[in-house]
Design goal:
With 221 residues, the chain is α+β, with helices and mostly antiparallel strands. Helices cover 52% and strands 8% of the residues. It folds into 2 domains: 72 residues, Glutaredoxin (3-Layer(aba) Sandwich); 121 residues, Glutathione S-transferase Yfyf (Class Pi), Chain A, domain 2 (Up-down Bundle), CATH 1.20.1050.10. A 4-stranded mixed sheet has the order 2-1-3-4, covered by helices on one side. Helix 1 runs parallel beside helix 3, helix 4 packs antiparallel against helix 5 and helix 4 packs parallel to helix 6. The protein is globular.
Length: 221
């Protein structure tokens, strides 16, 4: 049995779920609150960060370690090209969103709208939230640019870059904070990615106490 310890609002967890779905893997999910990780999970993942992959007595923790493992151990469904320059570009985009987007957009919006509400029982700080939404505009313009250049985010075929970007956007889109009408190319690309079978379970995610935006499950938004 392959077990993924995750949380539905973790974009890194969503990315791993998408990768495994694209590679036709069977797996089960165990949810952990990222702000209250259990002692059991900390025992097998010292960083206490999600996601964590458990299989056949083995444990792999860390977003990048799991991503590389899944790509290398399931070569029949490739999400990385053979060309070294193309692979470098995919890794650059993954790094951009897993670090830059995460720190400049996700942390601001998710902390204020979700983590403060459920962990700290506090109201959001409007100034911090506004800063995150302003940062989002910059990143959406960049996605729009990348989607205009290529058929997919990093080239002509679906890759780990697409799944990474889509995983991050899906969390923000759940909250209804993306003005899709302003980003035609990004919208067309995201509609194409979220229409894939691998996205089906992501669109079923439900954050307790928060209803998804009207566009979240709409494949033709």
């Amino acid at each position: 049995m392959v077990l993924l310890i995750h949380h539905s609002i973790s974009p890194q967890s969503r990315k791993i779920r998408l990768i495994m779905a694209e590679k036709k893997m069977l797996f089960v999910l165990k949810e952990e609150e990222p702000w209250n990780v259990s002692a059991e999970v900390r025992k097998i993942s010292p960083s206490g960060e999600l996601p964590v992959l458990v299989f056949d007595g083995n444990v792999i923790s860390g977003n990048y370690a799991i991503t590389e493992y899944l790509e290398e151990s399931n070569p029949q469904y490739k999400l990385m090209p053979e060309d070294l320059k193309e692979r470098a570009e995919i890794r650059r985009i993954m790094d951009w969103f897993d670090i830059k987007f995460y720190n400049e957009v996700y942390k601001y919006i998710i902390t204020e709208k979700i983590i403060k509400r459920f962990q700290l029982k506090q109201a959001p700080n409007s100034k911090i939230l506004k800063a995150g939404l302003n940062n989002l505009k910059f990143h959406m313009e960049y996605i729009d640019y990348l989607a205009d250049k290529n058929n997919y985010i990093a080239g002509n075929t679906l890759s780990l870059a697409d799944l990474t970007v889509a995983a991050h956007l899906s969390v923000i889109d759940y909250l209804g904070d993306i003005s899709w009408g302003e980003y035609k190319n990004a919208k067309l690309w995201y509609a194409k990615v979220k229409s894939r079978p691998s996205f089906k379970d992501i669109l079923k995610d439900n954050i307790k106490g928060i209803s998804p935006s009207v566009n979240y499950t709409n494949l033709d938004f």
